Amino acid sequence: MGYVYTFLIGGAICAIGQLLMDATKLTAPRVLVIFVVAGAVLQGLQLYEPLVELAGSGATVPLPGFGYVLAKGAMEGAREGLLQAVMGGVKAASGGIAVAVSWGYIVSLIFSPKSIVR
Amino acid sequence: MNKRTFIFKNRPEVISASSAVGKKEGQGPMKSWFDMISDDDTFGQKTWEKAESYMLKTTVEDAIKKAGKTKDEIDILLSGDLLNQIMSSSFMARDVQIPFIGLYGACSTMTESLMLAGVLTDGGYCDTAVSCASSHFCTAERQFRLPLEHGHQKPPSAQSTVTGAGAMVISGIKSNKCNNKPDAFQVKTREGNRVVITAATAGKVFDPGIRDSNEMGAAMAPAAVDLILAHLSGTGRTFDDYDMIVTGDLGFTGKAVAADILGQAGVTKEQIEKKFVDCGTLIYDKADGFESGGSGCGCSASVFSGYVYKMLQNGRLKRVLMLSTGAMLSTISPFQGETIPGIAHGVELESEGDL
Amino acid sequence: MNDNDKKKKREAKAYEKYVKNFTPKPHYTMNILKAFIVGGSLCTAAMYVQNVLTETGVSKEMAGNYVTVGIVMLAQLLTGLGLFDSIGKFAGAGVIVPISGFANAMVSTAIEYKKEGPVLGVGGKMFTVAGPVLVCGISASAVIGIIYWVIGVTG
């Protein structure tokens, strides 16, 4: 059953993140950076692809998945040429980035921060 | 007598005080002591910075009104806050048009300004001075920590910046006891005891080497203890001579650390339990999710001007040492690998029942 | 580093250890459990939607893209509505580590600086947290791409 692996792997990656934030003094932004770079490096070593095949969204939805998409794109581009190798990462992740920037901008222009929840 | 402690021979009087706080603070255990509580943390203003400035201005004006004075009768305004270039204070000063000296002592600003007001009025350079400070949750959080809407968890040692402001009017003129004026506010002031500033001690910057900005209480505790001991030796008094020794914003963690260090310095447990108080642990309801208490200039400013001042006025406290504690970090220093130094300034107030 | 610095460092370490006795600890087990369950559930829900989309004839790759984009948009909307910080307070890394945390970081920093203007305020501050993520991630991918290109050319 694929969903079991999705749940376990996805949950485990988040649990590692929680442990990092609680046990070390790493703040949330630093954890995000670490996870993206870790995903890219693991894919560079061709270790992340098997995880994606096993767990699907469990491996792609957490942030290492973003790093994985970037690295995978770069590795595919590398077969075509040097510039394609540099371009490949952004090209593969362009959809997510474009939506995150534009939709995020619209949302930010509409809403304002609230004080009440502390 | 060491030079860190100033003894005020003329005993300038704190003729009035006013405090204002935000919604959460107004629901805490101190709620009945505050003069003004706002339901709305924006205070009806467009930006958080304007809100803080407005809150500060309101307390200053209210304190002046309670003293039975007008703005023209105030010689100097001493104020500070946490924002870059002390924005809230300078913009408040723009509106009230009183000669202004801006101060920055991080969260220690309230006693810093009170000490200087004492010096100016005791020395006869000013007749009347206003000392005040403020902080706002929404302005400080975004400057020093993460944005309001960011979905992070706060570690249990992290304190919460108090939305609050406090102002005191200090007069150096003995004869001007204000009781000749048939003002309603004056009558109220004169019902109680005179509250006078008798001594003050300036703090040293102490750096115990804490790096985590979620542990400000621990970063400030050694500075607070150092100040208490320096003030005791400077005035030649002992712990027993005070009804209360109240720190600004050590929070639960910092207070526990400071109490332990005081214990090592020879203060007994009973004395600490009975007399050692921290505004940061008083201001919030602990069950409301504020596990580690409050912080910020407004924390000590509002509790000193609200609770402590009124307790002195009604004579339930005779002599109090108030010390606001500050963490001297900047917005960039933690990123440069700097540790967080702490500071504390102490002011001694007495209640004079001469009526 | 001279002896004085070393001494200071030792003292700082000792003080940090001493302070630990008074500092409340995070609820490790509970926090990790919450992060595990919420994070796992989010991934499983994403997988389910992706599977439904593939069944209706969308290619596997595009289905994955749709799901990612969907989570990003939802997280940003919840941030704007002021709900994400409460969810994050409960779930911690369960919503920070998935792509929703990246989306939240962009909007939360941007709306905080709304009063500083739509261009330099919102536009500029959008990347205070997301910027480093993009910079480091894209740079890492470029380096990996170049390494693979070199291996491809020489090998």
Your description of this structure?
- The complex is a heterotrimer of chains A (118), B (355) and C (155).
- With 118 residues, chain A is an all-alpha fold.
- Helix content of chain A is 81%, strand content 0%.
- In chain A, α2 runs parallel beside α5 and α5 runs antiparallel to α6.
- Chain B is α/β, with parallel strands linked by helices and 355 residues long.
- Chain B folds into two domains: 167 residues, Stage V sporulation protein AD (Peroxisomal Thiolase, Chain A, domain 1, 3-Layer(aba) Sandwich); 156 residues, 3-Layer(aba) Sandwich (Peroxisomal Thiolase, Chain A, domain 1), CATH 3.40.47.
- Chain B has ten helices and 14 strands.
- In chain B, the strands form three sheets. Chain B has a six-stranded mixed β-sheet with strand order 1-9-14-13-10-11, sandwiched between helices. Chain B has a six-stranded mixed β-sheet with strand order 3-2-8-6-4-5, with helices on both faces. In chain B, strands 7-12 form a two-stranded parallel ribbon.
- Chain B is globular.
Q: What is the C-alpha radius of gyration of chain B, as a whole number of Å?
A: 19 Å
Tell me the total number of β-strands of chain A: 0
User: What is the residue-averaged pLDDT of chain A?
Assistant: 92
- Considering residues with a beta carbon less than 8 A from a beta carbon on another chain, report the largest interface and each chain's count: A-C, 78 and 76 residues
Distance linking N and C termini of chain A: 41 Å
Helix count from the secondary structure assignment of chain B: 10
Helix amount of chain A, in percent?
over 70%
Look at the helices and sheets of chain B and give the structural class: alpha/beta
Oligomer: heterotrimer
Regions of chain B with pLDDT < 50 over 5+ consecutive residues? Answer: 175-189
What keywords describe this structure?
heterotrimer; B: 355 residues; alpha/beta; Peroxisomal Thiolase, Chain A, domain 1; 2 domains; 6-stranded mixed β-sheet; 10 helices; 14 strands; C: 155 residues; mainly alpha; 0% strand
Short account of what is shown:
Chain A is mainly α and 118 residues long. Chain A is built from 6 helices and no strands. In chain B, the strands form 3 sheets. Chain B has a 6-stranded mixed beta sheet with strand order 1-9-14-13-10-11, sandwiched between helices.
